[in-house]
């Protein structure tokens, strides 16, 4: 089931042509890459800040499994 992004891409493609739709796709993918990169850096910072606690959480998770 398409989400709102797909709906916008289809609407812009039908209204303004395939180039507008392609521009929306490129913008959407750039935003996705940017968000994933920020998330990865944030998680890396958190894990580095709580190193010993993270080791304990890994052991706790392994014990749970």
Question: How would you portray this structure in words?
Answer:
With 65 residues, the chain is mostly helical. It has one domain (4-64). Helices cover 91% and strands 0% of the residues. It has three helices and no strands. The protein has helices spanning 4-16, 18-49, 51-64.
Task: Throw out a few tags for this protein.
65 residues, mainly alpha, 3 helices, elongated
Distance between the termini: 34 Å
Q: What portion of residues belong to β-strands? A: under 5%
Q: What is the element string, with H for helices and E for strands? A: HHH
- The helical percent reads over 70%
Gyration radius, rounded: 20 Å
What count of domains describes the coordinates? 1
Mean pLDDT: 92
Please count the beta strands (DSSP E, at least 2 residues each): 0
Tell me about the largest β-sheet: none
User: Segments where pLDDT lies below 50 for 5+ residues?
Assistant: none
Structural class: mainly alpha
Summarize the structure.
The chain has helices spanning 4-16, 18-49, 51-64. The chain is mostly helical. It is elongated.
Fold topology:
Layout: H1 4-16, H2 18-49, H3 51-64
């Amino acid at each position: 089931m398409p989400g709102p992004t797909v709906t916008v891409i289809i609407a812009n493609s039908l209204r303004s042509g395939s180039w507008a739709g392609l521009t929306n796709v490129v913008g959407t993918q750039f935003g996705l890459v940017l968000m994933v990169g920020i998330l990865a850096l944030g998680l890396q910072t958190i894990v580095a800040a709580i190193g010993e606690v993270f080791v304990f959480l890994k052991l706790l998770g392994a014990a749970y499994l």
